[in-house]
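Standup, Tuesday
Yesterday: got the pipeline producing structure tokens again.
Today: sanity-check two examples.
Blockers: none.

Example 1:
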Amino acid sequence: MRLLVASDHAAIELRQAVVDHLRGLGHAVEVSGPASGERADYPDQAALVAHAVAAGQADAGVLLCGTGIGMSIAANKVPGIRAALVHDVSTARLAAEHNRANILCLGARVLGPVVALDCVDAWLQTAFEARHQHRLDLITALERSA
């Protein structure tokens, strides 16, 4: 898969762990965000990844900030994006299975690296269940009515 991974300054270490893990699994990964000691605004990083995923320039994305909340809010402003904030393997699996989340959001201040990587794996390994397509169609209709 072609994946984009980005973070703000609060999640640089976890971002690197996610990138290393994904590359170790054989995925093509592009990275965005600040280097150590630099600050970055999460809406800018979320927009970069969300627009690229929506345009088909990447298959999916992973966004990380302190809690994951800001990234998920910002990314979900882009039509076609279903960014899911997850906190454990169950929510990561359901984000893929029920919501076909195309961006996974993680919080570096609320998740340890082991749980975060387990979430990434669960999200990537879980197939979307087509029986939920009607609900995704309703979400798309909401985007178009805005």
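Example 2:
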Amino acid sequence: MKQKVLMIVTSHNMLGSTGKPTGLYLSELAHPYEVLVEAGCDITVASPKGGDAPIDPGSIASEIEKYALLAKNTKALHTIKPEDYDAYLVVGGHGTMWDLAFNADLNRILPAAFAQGKVVAAVCHGPVALTHLKNPDGAFMIRNKKVTGFTNEEEFAAGLTKVMPFLLEDELIKAGAAYLKKPNWAANVVVDGNLVTGQNPASAKGVGEAVASLLCVEEVK
């Protein structure tokens, strides 16, 4: 039976009060998707609102443009149950910073799935979805877990430090995680048990490979 993976994307399409469009970062959807499909996984894409998810226009490169179709007609998170999938992978993009950090459906789904031994993964800004998740005992799910995510330095280099509602690195540390980072734009994938996180877009393929490995399917080189 194929392993089932739910890839979670943002429904938020505006970059703060700048008036500029944002959304999911397409390579962070495309690269893990390629790896996981080649490894034989069955992929579904979901978002908070369901339907067509916004894509950051700056992330649409010709070689991955075809994967924009994956953002069409996504499932709504409220329809998802923790036991529905073998792995959950949160795709990045600046839109996540507004609608995934305090998402009630993710708080219902991901800690329960994680406790069941399902793989929980996130890349770039996607780890924002993990920052406020709590276990049944009230403790943060990522407390004392090794994680990574888009760094303060990378946000500064992108010129968006003051646009973000908060900084991802700071929020991961506030949740009690052991935050690990590499220099700007260097690939960095951190695995702690069944938790997988990637620092930036360059880490997206590696996150997909780590998820495939944890699912005990053939890892794609």
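Quick observation on example 2: The mean pLDDT is 96. The beta strands are 4-8, 42-47, 75-76, 87-90, 119-123, 146-147, 178-179, 189-192, 195-198.
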